[in-house]
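Researcher: Checking consistency across runs. Here is PAP2 superfamily protein again:
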Amino acid sequence: MLGAVALLLAIFQVFVTTSTGQVTEHMALQAATARLETMPPLGETVLRLLPGVSAVTAVLVFLVITVWRRRWLASAIALASFGAANLTTQLLKKVILLRPDLDNGVPYYTGNSLPSGHTTFAAAAVVAVVLVVAPRWRPMTAALGALFATAVGAGTFLETWHRPSDMAAAYLVAAFWGLAGGLLILRTGAEWNTRARRTARHPHPGGHPGWDIALWLGGLLTTVGGMLCYLLAGGREALDPAVPWTSGWHYLGGLLVSVGPGLLVFAVLASFLRWESGRPAARG
């Protein structure tokens, strides 16, 4: 939880309070804006509907699991974590993490947008589902849920609603409250947080370590790839908000950074909850 707070403050410091960070994201957003203007109407419709569809899907899955497993206390805690994450995002965006208007050529019309509300809603809804499923299903749920959450993050960037750092901050807010909720859930229902005893040769498909590995690899590759795109675009020397030319590298980098941190956040959650789940005591 402390790590999530530290990373969020670092992202704010680098991408919001510095001129270089603001110009970097502005050029990525310019590139997305130019491509959005040429996007077919069907693509725009999909992008607009994606946040709502993904979030509603996660909420419905959460309700089904709650009724099916009858984990009322765990579900209440997960729901409180979901609400706290969304409330935190609004407080950070409107009260605490205010965006300075620097004299660097970056327009201020978008105002303060960190963290992304759409991405927080989707990520926190998925985290709530991860918290209430059985331990043997958590890794798979985290991996599939990460696709939903990061799809919303990618969609909000492609639709030019938010900058990449907004999505990264939203994932961290969801992670903070997911870990807080997990701390309570794993300590108040030991019988619900115990993995069945299985051999290494026959792990449960929903809890296979491959899910964790896929999240870690995907998150590292996309995040590092986004940084490489920045360097391939010319690095700091190529940053100029007055130039109307939009770089494909800035566009791809912004898209990758809108996704990668989310995959890493869910990789941490999946691995941490795996380590924290109990095992049956040995007989005799």
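Researcher: Does this match what you'd expect to see?
Model: One thing to look at in this run: Residues 2-194+204-276 form one domain.
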